[in-house]
Specification:
Layout: H1 6-18, H2 24-30, H3 39-51, E1 55-60, E2 63-68, H4 72-88, H5 92-99, H6 107-124
Antiparallel strand pairs: 1-2
Helix pairs in contact: 1-2, 1-3, 2-3
């Protein structure tokens, strides 16, 4: 799965959050108001996403309707694995040390992590 540039990822996040087939106008309304993109820019990004097979496009009346072809969870999982492999040499320890370099994790976060690790151990047996 290809990694998306931030601008295309922002469009995909809007589509995933809307959780349905959407028009350009609906996407535009969902985007961050501080980073206002022009309608032509949004259409250009959607065209790129179609070429990358992240969305499909079909006509409904005068409007193009866009549908996510890639599931958000699948994309995030692939992206997370890439970050872990490339930046942290596939080491969860290195990742956790970087994540909490400036602050201590809360008791709740430690408990959640411990529960996750316990589940992993359980699955190995």
């Amino acid at each position: 799965m290809k990694r998306l540039p931030d601008s295309e990822l922002e469009i995909m996040i809007a589509i995933w959050e809307l959780n349905k087939e959407v028009t350009r106008t609906e996407i535009e309304e969902r985007l961050d108001r501080d980073k206002k993109l022009s309608p032509t820019t949004i259409l250009s990004l959607l065209s790129r996403l179609e070429k990358k097979e992240f969305v499909s496009i079909h006509k409904e009346g005068k409007n193009n309707v866009y549908k996510a072809l890639i599931n958000e969870e699948d994309y995030m999982n692939a992206e997370s694995k890439t970050v872990l492999e490339k930046l942290y040499k596939n080491s969860l320890t290195n990742f956790m040390m970087a994540l909490y370099a400036d602050k201590k994790p809360t008791k709740k976060q430690i408990d959640e992590l411990q529960e996750f690790l316990d589940d992993l151990k359980e699955q190995q047996h």
